[in-house]
Amino acid sequence: MRSDPSLWGAITLAVLAPLLAACQIDSRQQVLATSNTQVAQRAISTRSFDTGDRNLLFRAVIGALQDLGFVVDRADDELGTVSATRFSGSVVRLTVTIRPAGPNRTLVRASGQYNLDAISDATPYQRFFETLSQSLFLGANQVD
Question: Hey, what domains does the chain have and what are their CATH numbers?
């Protein structure tokens, strides 16, 4: 008696299908996990400043980046973005976005990469925002 290849294919599929379905990850769980991670990252990398003077904040961001040893690659005042790179044995890229959040409030969001990996640790962002606050203080008191 000869075996039918289509019969063996059907039997194999019937056996493997439930096993493959058991390995499937619920896509809703993946979406929720990703968005929670993104919300946490946004909280780490965003600060609000009590000023409506976007130009002052833009100059302070450039000054803070330079104080931290970054070389400004691109600065677009109209878009409110600054991209900078620091070369110190490895490549660190930081892109900062400045956008209004009301008449007297401005949001600053930084996004960093260490080599090719996104920076998710809070410490570099805290250091940047501390330096930015100092730069704003010095700029407000006209100390260069």
Answer: 46-140 (3.30.310.80)
